[in-house]
Amino acid sequence: MVTVAGVRVATWNVNSVKQRVPRLLPWLDQRQPDVVCLQETKLADDAFTALLGDSLKERGYEFALFGETQWNGVALLSRVGLDDVAVGVAGAPGFPHVEARAVAATCGGVRVHSLYVPNGREPESDHYKYKLEWLAALRDVLEAGPADALVCGDINIAPADADVFDPDAFASSTHVTEPERAALEAIKALGFHDVVRDRWPTERVFSYWDYRAGMFHRDLGMRIDLILASDSVAPRAKAAWIDRHARKGTGPSDHAPVIVDLDEAPDGDIGPVVPPPSAPGAKKKVKLPQSK
């Protein structure tokens, strides 16, 4: 397999690809990613193909899908090759059936995983236990996989307290618990690097903002969408950033795309968040919108 140089990789939880078509296609034209990992497509494979197949092919993308009606769903788009496609995570549990949460393929010589990790809902719930078991199975797959790899997607874990707007606000929530973070660290221990945080170790960087309570405009978010690069791929990262512009305006997803440029940075090393946050963050304690 020939490695392709100068590749832009993006991951984006679109929170319903059907709702996001007016945003997705112009964004592809603007940012020109070579590989795109999508999550929460919420469409069966035939419906996704009917909706977007022609438009993606016109833009030079092949695509691999693992979808289901209404819930979950992942996709992988590539214009640098799409080989050895695999859906699901071998050995992972279902809830109760196997959910559409993972698709992988080799793109430009790199094994790329598009992942929508289970949310976990409430600590100690059955869904939380399912999340941890699913992550353990993912680790095993990655350990057995090729050395050149990228793990991309909505990981539903904030790696550290710096990745949430206020750790105290999340004290009793999922996404920040020690077992979840330990599961993520077990994957990173295989040699995977959090390329955005490695590039911007002290910056305020979020990828998700709740729709409610003006959280986006106040920049009260979380960084739960990640791109992890293996030891051999991480040094190729020349720019790593959050496309916050895609979260603005009418009809956005509640997530912003994460973008990593390999080998060359066509827009330069443009900063951790594009454009910069519109607000510096909370000056007083803020409760999560769902908190009572």
From TrEMBL:
<keyword id="KW-0460">Magnesium</keyword>
<dbReference type="GO" id="GO:0004519">
    <property type="term" value="F:endonuclease activity"/>
</dbReference>
<feature type="binding site">
    <location>
        <position position="40"/>
    </location>
    <ligand>
        <name>Mg(2+)</name>
    </ligand>
</feature>
<comment type="similarity">
    <text>Belongs to the DNA repair enzymes AP/ExoA family.</text>
</comment>
<dbReference type="GO" id="GO:0006281">
    <property type="term" value="P:DNA repair"/>
</dbReference>
<keyword id="KW-0479">Metal-binding</keyword>
<feature type="domain" description="Endonuclease/exonuclease/phosphatase">
    <location>
        <begin position="10"/>
        <end position="255"/>
    </location>
</feature>
<feature type="binding site">
    <location>
        <position position="154"/>
    </location>
    <ligand>
        <name>Mg(2+)</name>
    </ligand>
</feature>
<feature type="binding site">
    <location>
        <position position="254"/>
    </location>
    <ligand>
        <name>Mg(2+)</name>
    </ligand>
</feature>
<feature type="active site" description="Proton donor/acceptor">
    <location>
        <position position="154"/>
    </location>
</feature>
<dbReference type="Pfam" id="PF03372">
    <property type="entry name" value="Exo_endo_phos"/>
</dbReference>
<feature type="site" description="Interaction with DNA substrate">
    <location>
        <position position="255"/>
    </location>
</feature>
<dbReference type="GO" id="GO:0003677">
    <property type="term" value="F:DNA binding"/>
</dbReference>
<dbReference type="InterPro" id="IPR036691">
    <property type="entry name" value="Endo/exonu/phosph_ase_sf"/>
</dbReference>
<feature type="binding site">
    <location>
        <position position="13"/>
    </location>
    <ligand>
        <name>Mg(2+)</name>
    </ligand>
</feature>
<protein>
    <submittedName>
        <fullName>Exodeoxyribonuclease-3</fullName>
    </submittedName>
</protein>
<dbReference type="GO" id="GO:0046872">
    <property type="term" value="F:metal ion binding"/>
</dbReference>
<feature type="binding site">
    <location>
        <position position="156"/>
    </location>
    <ligand>
        <name>Mg(2+)</name>
    </ligand>
</feature>
<dbReference type="InterPro" id="IPR005135">
    <property type="entry name" value="Endo/exonuclease/phosphatase"/>
</dbReference>
<feature type="active site">
    <location>
        <position position="116"/>
    </location>
</feature>
<keyword id="KW-0464">Manganese</keyword>
<dbReference type="InterPro" id="IPR037493">
    <property type="entry name" value="ExoIII-like"/>
</dbReference>
<feature type="region of interest" description="Disordered">
    <location>
        <begin position="245"/>
        <end position="292"/>
    </location>
</feature>
<feature type="site" description="Important for catalytic activity">
    <location>
        <position position="225"/>
    </location>
</feature>
<dbReference type="InterPro" id="IPR020847">
    <property type="entry name" value="AP_endonuclease_F1_BS"/>
</dbReference>
<feature type="site" description="Transition state stabilizer">
    <location>
        <position position="156"/>
    </location>
</feature>
<keyword id="KW-0378">Hydrolase</keyword>
<feature type="compositionally biased region" description="Basic residues">
    <location>
        <begin position="282"/>
        <end position="292"/>
    </location>
</feature>
<feature type="active site" description="Proton acceptor">
    <location>
        <position position="255"/>
    </location>
</feature>
<dbReference type="GO" id="GO:0008311">
    <property type="term" value="F:double-stranded DNA 3'-5' DNA exonuclease activity"/>
</dbReference>
<feature type="binding site">
    <location>
        <position position="255"/>
    </location>
    <ligand>
        <name>Mg(2+)</name>
    </ligand>
</feature>
<dbReference type="InterPro" id="IPR004808">
    <property type="entry name" value="AP_endonuc_1"/>
</dbReference>
